[in-house]
Amino acid sequence: MDEQKPPSEEKDTEAPADGAVTSEEMGSAEEDPLKPPEGASAGSEPESTDRKGPPQANSTPAHRCALCNCGDWSLHGQRELQRFEPAPDWPERLAGYEPPEGPGQPRPELEVVGNDLAQIGFSNQVTPAQLFEPTGHCWVHRWCAAWSAGVEQEAAGLAGVDRAVFSGISQKCEHCQRMGATIPCRADGCPRFYHFPCAAASGCFQSMKTLRLFCPEHMAEAMQM
């Protein structure tokens, strides 16, 4: 009687085909959001961080986005973290805000950062001194900036990012209810704002061609557009 041969233990090492369909509604980018893009640039002489993988647990990132509060390597597809130039009227923009403790004093620490959606954005106590460098420069993810109200694409890159950061200090996200939200619903009269990671989580319509967002309450207008 022939001895029965055991089934082969060799497994197919090929990854299954990706069945996900790229859709304009989901706001999917042309690059894999889980891999830090290479060679991208925006703004006036931006500097992007060079981290090659996710930060270690309990580590503090060197820089954080002044809109979503995530570090340079994020799981939510915001693309690279970049340093943007200050506006010429940077000192005047500080009027009405609590000034730093004084020259030579360290900036107040921000709250704990993480990739969980519950940690996106900022509490009510965030100040410009926490979001901007003493020189007026700020660090913002490419997509967090590009989708923000008032930010424009110019020949040299994105303009008006610092104004968006100031706006986000007092604007609460409709999804997470935390500050730093600068992406508005484009429906007339709609008061809703979102962080870039929260927009997809809340089911918003996002057009990658026009960088316009419609909240779930105004999907009909998105279809007409």
UniProtKB/TrEMBL annotation:
GO terms for biological process: methylation; positive regulation of transcription by RNA polymerase II. Its main location: nucleus. It is found in: Nucleus. One of its GO terms (cellular component) is MLL3/4 complex. It comes from the Eukaryota. InterPro entries: EPHD (IPR034732), Znf_PHD (IPR001965), Znf_RING/FYVE/PHD (IPR013083). PANTHER family: HISTONE-LYSINE N-METHYLTRANSFERASE 2D (PTHR45888:SF2), HL01030P-RELATED (PTHR45888). This is KMT2D methyltransferase. It comes from Ibidorhyncha struthersii.
